[in-house]
């Protein structure tokens, strides 16, 4: 069974920005990432860098609004909904 690598950057000019983003994510989680080959990283370390990148790319969405209170006539309450991707 052959595997096909689809991890391609669609905009070639974005490679430098993605490399910088990867280095910043690695620094945030305490992984010693270097330019070029990083085959000495454990799967856990590499996964933590990727996870940090996803965490920053997909922020939680918040929505707040006031609505009529269902238990007390004439009162209003603030409602906050939070949606996000939790891994």
Structure description:
With 87 residues, the chain is α+β, with helices and mostly antiparallel strands. Helices cover 34% and strands 18% of the residues. The protein has two helices and two strands, in the order ααββ. It has a two-stranded antiparallel sheet with strand order 1-2. A hairpin with a 7-residue loop joins β1 and β2. The chain starts with 14 loop residues before the first helix and ends with a strand. The mean pLDDT is 81.
Give a summary of the structure in a few sentences.
The protein is an alpha+beta fold and 87 residues long.
Which helices and strands occur, and which strands form pairs?
Blueprint (H helix, E strand, L loop, with lengths): L14 H15 L13 H15 L3 E8 L7 E8 L4
Antiparallel strand pairs: 1-2
